[in-house]
């Protein structure tokens, strides 16, 4: 799929990619190496952090003229897997956790060349237009992790609020939650 200036590969959402599995893997690793949050990840963790995204087809890779520009992966967790995800390092997730339920979480968002607003618009308006999603967000302001909530444009604010209320964060978890907020208007 071509979107704005980017070629989008998202095999779980769109037609199969013209790229080989090895090309996709190499492009994602290249983006990881450019990300301060990912580049120090030990190589052996790729089997638990990257391979499940590829296997479950829960990723989006954006390229421009063959050059990797952006990578996103997401989880579809059940309540038990969500609890483990929020309490433990991401490398503790099981392969089966990635597709265990309906609680969508953005897992990786790697944008070393920008494109955050463009990809957010694509997700909210087209690819995840009917979904409610959470993401762990870490800022370097000393406040630690926060939970961000998002919804696609086809999800009405009242529906999103009801969905997030029906799928609360695990009891006993002390992460600040931004709470419900309407979809971004990009």
Account of the protein in words:
By secondary structure, this protein is α+β, with helices and mostly antiparallel strands. 29% of the residues lie in helices and 24% in strands. The chain has one domain (2-166): 3-Layer(aba) Sandwich (Aminopeptidase). The chain has six helices and seven strands. It is globular.
Percent helix among the residues? Answer: 25-40%
Beta-strand percent range: 15-25%
Mean pLDDT: 87
Regarding CATH, which class? Alpha Beta
**Oligomer class:** single chain
Query: What's the CATH architecture?
Result: 3-Layer(aba) Sandwich
**Could you say what the CATH topology is called?**
Aminopeptidase
Instruction: Give me the Rg, rounded.
Output: 16 Å
Strand order of the largest sheet: 1-2-3-4-5-6-7
| Strand segment tally | 7
**Helical segment count:** 6
Q: What structural category arises from helix and sheet content?
A: alpha+beta
Q: What's the order of the H and E elements?
A: EEHHHEEHEHEEH
Shape descriptor reads: globular
């Amino acid at each position: 799929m071509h979107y704005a200036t980017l070629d989008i590969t998202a095999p779980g959402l769109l037609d199969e990619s013209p790229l080989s599995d090895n090309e996709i893997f190499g492009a994602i690793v290249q983006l990881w190496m450019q990300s301060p949050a990912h580049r120090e990840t030990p190589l052996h963790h790729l089997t638990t952090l990257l391979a499940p995204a590829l296997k479950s087809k829960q990723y989006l890779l954006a390229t421009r003229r063959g050059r990797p520009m952006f990578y996103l992966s997401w989880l579809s967790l059940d309540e038990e897997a969500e609890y483990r995800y929020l309490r433990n390092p991401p490398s503790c997730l099981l392969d089966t956790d990635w597709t265990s339920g309906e609680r969508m979480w953005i897992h990786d968002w790697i944008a070393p060349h920008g494109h955050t607003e463009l990809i957010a618009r694509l997700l909210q308006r087209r690819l995840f237009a009917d979904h409610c999603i959470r993401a762990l967000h870490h800022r370097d302001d000393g406040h630690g992790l926060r939970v961000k909530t998002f919804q696609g444009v086809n999800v009405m604010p009242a529906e999103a609020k009801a969905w997030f209320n029906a799928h609360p964060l695990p009891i006993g978890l002390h992460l600040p939650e931004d709470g419900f907020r309407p979809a971004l208007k990009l």
